[in-house]
Amino acid sequence: MLHNEQKGTLILVATTMLASLGWIFSKETIQGLPPFAFIGLRFVLASLFLLPFCYCSFTKVHQKDIAKSMGVGLLMAMALMCWIYAISISSTLGEGAFILSLSMLFVPIVAWALFKQTPSRTFWMSLPLSIAGLAFLSLADGWLISSSQLWFLASALFLALHFNMNAKLASKMPILLLTCIQLFVTGGFGLTLSLLFETLPDSIEDTIWGWFALSTLVATSLRYVLQTTGQKYVLAANAALIMLLEPIGTVILSVIWYEEQMTMSKLIGCTLIFLSLVIYRAGGRIRRFFH
């Protein structure tokens, strides 16, 4: 019989697999559905799914907090618009997954700038490795930074900003309501951009809607249910380390599905970023090891 912690670990490993598959599902969906329309439909549907579970909470919170939630939702929307646009112009999903995972390293920098919260010593240990990793990802025939890398980086920065601002609101508002509002704002923003800048195709193949369903139901709804369940049984620090498997899984799937070429410089860059995240997420355990 498996103990609760072992069950939780297996569930979180499955969660990272679904998260990695989500990159493939999204890339396949936007082969027939415009990127912003895809995000818009996906997140509006997700918000409507949550609405019955948090509808009563609307009357119990201040209108100012609802307005703040919508503002933070715009940060989430910006992060996802940058992300999906980067996916639409990129042929290297694995590389993008590693760049996006840097958002957790940007969180303390944003907190330092906004709230004067000094980053930990572990953060300063991991930062040079992540910078070196980004440098290696940009090495091709000399230095070459692609536009998709910049969009993935912008997405990571918006995610870090969203994380900090969302943490402040989470202590004041019901979580389901906060999530529902932000999902709806993200979806609405995506649909607005789609109306302004995109043209829907005359017809969309059934296979595209199949990928859309997988992205919405499996990579979004099921994924977050499993993640929440797994986190009940696993220590937060251990869960965070397990979630580092997502970019690795994305690299493997991208190589298999799209035959993505991983040059030596890219492999070194991804490895350095991975090590920087391990050091940062392991936190105090590394400091105790050296003492």
Automatic annotation (TrEMBL):
One of its GO terms (cellular component) is plasma membrane. It is a multi-pass membrane protein. The chain crosses the membrane at residues 36-58, 70-90, 96-115, 122-140, 146-163, 175-196, 208-226, 233-258, 264-283. InterPro entries: Diverse_Substrate_Transporter (IPR051258), EamA_dom (IPR000620), EmrE-like (IPR037185). Residues 7-138, 149-279 form the EamA domain. It comes from the Bacteria. Its main location: membrane. It is found in: Cell membrane. Keywords: Cell membrane, Membrane, Transmembrane, Transmembrane helix. This is DMT family transporter.
